[in-house]
Structure formats: structure tokens, C-alpha cells
């Protein structure tokens, strides 16, 4: 069945770079796009960006200068990198196909 | 970017009551191929969001038929016909017609 699982550090220092991995199973990344969504504590969902099935990407306008999304189709993994982290980047980070969602990973940015 | 405005922000209901949530878009979500990429999600406390409705009115897999979606262009509605306790949480609309995709701010459904 379709599964997505996020992994990465739970604590990152301000000004550093966040690196997260989304490992998928049950489908091929060449057939479906994968989206990253984040949710600050107690707040709503924020769409961050997508890597399409052809490998192209689109990003949230507000994050575009700091964000990159890549993938390794042979490993069924999608990667998120975001630099210049600030404390307001503290959030649960999800990867999703829109139908299926990972459990999310809580990332805290410490000053 | 497309702005989705959800109303109300909070909804209090009793079990069995029917309720509706509105989602209005700052621009039409109808694309050139005639598709409208408007989705509804429910996020229960402590859980990941769950897909309820896709393409305005199509029920997600395993979603009870007390949920229904309607609308076109810029105005969309999610209706729950007979709220059950398991329906409590925050509802979000999301558009995927125009990149970057965007979410509404959410509507919290709570028990009266």
C-alpha cells in the first residue's frame, strides 16, 4: 500500500540548513508528484512546494529563495532543503501526494 | 498567489446537526481543460490531514457519504449531513489549479 515517511533532525540551530527526507513506497516517483507541507504549532497548513513526476519543481513564493526540493527515484526518496532557518520555521513537516500523507516530523529551530 | 478564504473560522455543532463550510477563492479555480482542483481535508487532533473530497465533489476513499462537496469557479462548500463525534477537528480547503498551491486558514468544528 502507499506509504510516505519523513525523517530528519528534530532540532536545528537558527541560521543553519534543514534537510529532510521523504521515503515513499507503494508507488513510483515518476508517476506521482510529492508535496511538502508544514504546520507551525497551533497554526494552519502551509504549502511549501512540489516535485512533479517529471522532476520539475514549484515553490511557495514566500519560501522560494530558501527552499529546494530534489529526489532520487532509484531510492524512492524526496529531499527538502531549506537554508537560513529562523525560529518561526519551527513546525511539523509533512510530505504528501495529496491523497496520502506521512505522519510528519516535528522540527524545532533553536536560537 | 491564490488566496482561499474559509468561513466560519469556528463552527459549533451538536451531534446529528448538519453544517456547511464555505471556501472562496481570489480567482477562478477552473483550468483551461475544464477541471477544478479544489480539495477538502480534515485534520483530527494530533493526526495528519485526511483527504475528504477531491475535484470539488468526489468523495475520497473510505470517506462516509455524509460528507459532500459542491461549488464552481470561486465559491465552494463542504457539507456534513449529520455531524458525528469523529468529525471533530479542523477542516481545510486547498486549491491545486494554480501553482503555488494554497490552503485556506481552516475551520475548527467543535461540539456545542
* Rg from Cα of chain A: 13 Å
Overall mean pLDDT of chain B: 97
How many β-strands of chain B, per DSSP? 11
Largest sheet of chain B: 7 strands, mixed
Question: Overview of this structure, please?
Answer:
The complex is a heterodimer of chains A (111) and B (112). Chain A has 111 residues and is mainly beta. Chain A has strands at residues 3-7, 11-13, 18-25, 34-39, 46-51, 57-59, 67-72, 77-82, 91-96, 105-110. Chain A is globular, with a radius of gyration of 13 Å. Chain A starts with a strand and ends with a strand. The mean pLDDT of chain A is 97. Chain B has no helices and eleven strands. Chain B has strands spanning 4-7, 10-13, 19-25, 38-43, 50-54, 58-59, 67-72, 75-80, 89-95, 102-103, 107-111. In chain B, the strands form two sheets. In chain B, strands 2, 4, 5, 6, 9, 10 and 11 form a seven-stranded mixed beta sheet that branches. Chain B has a four-stranded antiparallel beta sheet with strand order 1-3-8-7, with no helix packed on it. The mean pLDDT of chain B is 97.
Topology (elements, then pairings):
The complex is a heterodimer of chains A (111) and B (112).
Chain A: E1 3-7, E2 11-13, E3 18-25, E4 34-39, E5 46-51, E6 57-59, E7 67-72, E8 77-82, E9 91-96, E10 105-110
Parallel strand pairs in A: 2-10
Antiparallel strand pairs in A: 1-3, 3-8, 4-5, 4-9, 5-6, 7-8, 9-10
Chain B: E1 4-7, E2 10-13, E3 19-25, E4 38-43, E5 50-54, E6 58-59, E7 67-72, E8 75-80, E9 89-95, E10 102-103, E11 107-111
Parallel strand pairs in B: 2-11
Antiparallel strand pairs in B: 1-3, 3-8, 4-5, 4-9, 5-6, 7-8, 9-10, 9-11
Concise account of the structure shown:
Chain A is mainly β and 111 residues long. Chain A is built from no helices and ten strands.
List its salient traits.
heterodimer; A: 111 residues; mainly beta; six-stranded mixed β-sheet; four-stranded antiparallel β-sheet; B: 112 residues; seven-stranded mixed β-sheet
Amino acid at each position: 500500500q502507499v506509504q510516505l515517511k519523513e525523517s530528519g533532525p528534530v532540532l536545528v540551530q537558527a541560521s543553519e540548513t534543514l534537510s529532510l527526507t521523504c521515503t515513499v513506497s507503494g508507488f513510483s516517483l515518476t508517476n506521482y508528484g510529492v508535496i511538502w507541507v508544514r504546520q507551525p504549532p497551533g497554526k494552519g497548513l502551509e504549502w511549501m512546494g512540489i516535485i512533479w513526476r517529471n522532476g520539475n519543481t514549484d515553490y511557495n513564493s514566500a519560501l522560494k529563495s530558501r527552499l529546494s526540493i530534489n529526489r532520487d527515484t532509484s531510492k524512492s526518496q524526496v529531499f527538502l532543503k531549506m537554508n537560513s532557518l529562523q525560529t518561526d520555521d519551527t513546525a511539523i513537516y509533512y510530505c504528501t501526494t495529496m491523497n496520502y500523507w506521512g505522519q510528519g516530523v516535528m522540527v524545532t529551530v533553536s536560537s | 498567489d491564490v488566496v482561499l478564504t474559509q468561513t466560519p473560522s469556528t463552527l459549533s455543532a451538536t451531534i446529528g446537526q448538519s453544517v456547511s463550510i464555505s471556501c472562496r477563492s481570489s480567482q477562478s479555480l477552473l483550468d483551461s481543460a475544464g477541471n477544478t482542483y479544489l480539495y477538502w481535508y480534515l485534520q483530527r487532533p494530533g493526526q495528519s490531514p485526511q483527504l475528504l473530497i477531491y475535484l470539488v465533489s468526489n468523495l475520497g476513499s473510505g470517506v462516509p457519504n455524509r460528507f459532500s462537496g459542491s461549488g464552481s469557479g470561486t465559491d465552494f462548500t463542504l457539507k456534513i449531513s449529520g455531524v458525528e463525534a469523529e468529525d471533530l477537528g479542523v477542516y481545510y480547503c486547498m486549491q491545486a489549479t494554480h501553482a503555488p498551491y494554497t490552503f485556506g486558514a481552516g475551520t475548527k468544528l467543535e461540539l456545542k
